[in-house]
């Protein structure tokens, strides 16, 4: 984990893993140590956009020889863009994600993948297990945006997110989702 406090919580209860900025990852029924030992370990990515602190929390599945895009990641169906708890974005100040203005707070992210375009959804329901993404979860969507997938030259075995700051000191950058031979660049501005 990047810049994360991993204090244990009572067994069986919800856990939160806080970074130095006070933003935290939600864990359902697991301690941070247990979450790191899962088949798809729970991890996080901390980054800053100027004075804005951002924490992304996600489960990181491995390809393990499986067909990922169109297989493990089904086209045309909601996918939590990670594993276990929902992939969650925590922001300390207003940001713009995929052209959508967000207030400080916590949001779950998921997508409906397509071969030519992915639709990403921003949702206020983040303290839950990541599936199912049913009508009850979809009722708390606040916005969506689309991203075209990019082909990676090399295979990425374990799903990862990478922060790429904008060139020239612009206030923002791209959050890259990379898995198998696919990358998706999610623009975030401060």
Provide an overview of this structure.
The protein is mostly beta strands and 190 residues long. It has one domain (15-189). The protein is built from two helices and twelve strands; from the N terminus they run ββαβββββββαβββ. It has helices at 32-36, 135-138, and strands spanning 15-18, 24-27, 42-49, 52-59, 87-91, 95-97, 100-102, 105-112, 118-123, 141-147, 150-165, 172-189. A six-stranded antiparallel β-sheet has the order 3-4-5-8-9-10. A hairpin with a 5-residue loop joins strand 1 and strand 2 (24-27). The longest helix is centred in the N-terminal third of the chain and has 5 residues, at 32-36. 32% of the residues are buried. Mean pLDDT is 88; it is low at 1-18.
**Distance between termini?**
23 Å
Q: In the residues, how many domains can be counted?
A: 1
- Helix percent band: under 10%
- The quaternary structure here is single chain
Q: Kindly estimate the percentage of residues that lie in beta strands according to DSSP.
A: over 45%
Category from helices, strands and their pairing: mainly beta
Low-confidence stretches: 1-18
- How many runs of DSSP E, i.e. beta strands? 12
**How would you describe the shape?**
globular
Mean residue pLDDT: 88
Helical run tally: 2
Rg estimate, integer Å? 16 Å
Order of helical and strand elements: EEHEEEEEEEHEEE
Biggest sheet architecture:
6 strands, antiparallel
User: Widest sheet: strand order?
Assistant: 3-4-5-8-9-10
């Amino acid at each position: 984990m990047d810049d994360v406090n991993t204090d244990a919580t009572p067994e069986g209860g919800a856990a939160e893993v806080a970074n130095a900025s006070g933003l935290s990852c939600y864990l359902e029924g697991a301690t941070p140590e247990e979450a790191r030992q899962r088949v798809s370990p729970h991890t996080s990515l901390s980054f800053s956009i100027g004075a804005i602190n951002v924490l992304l929390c996600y489960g990181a599945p491995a390809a393990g020889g499986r067909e990922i895009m169109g297989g493990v990641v089904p086209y045309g169906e909601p996918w939590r863009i990670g594993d276990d708890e929902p992939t969650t974005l925590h922001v300390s100040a207003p940001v713009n994600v995929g052209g959508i203005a967000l207030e400080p707070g916590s949001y779950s992210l998921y997508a409906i993948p397509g071969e030519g375009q992915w639709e990403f959804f921003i949702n206020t329901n983040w303290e839950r297990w990541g599936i199912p993404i049913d009508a009850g979860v979809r009722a708390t969507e606040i916005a969506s945006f689309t991203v075209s997938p990019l082909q990676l030259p090399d295979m990425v075995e374990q799903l990862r997110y990478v922060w790429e700051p904008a060139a020239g000191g612009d206030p923002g950058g791209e959050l890259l989702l990379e898995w198998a031979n696919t990358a998706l660049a999610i623009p975030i501005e401060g």
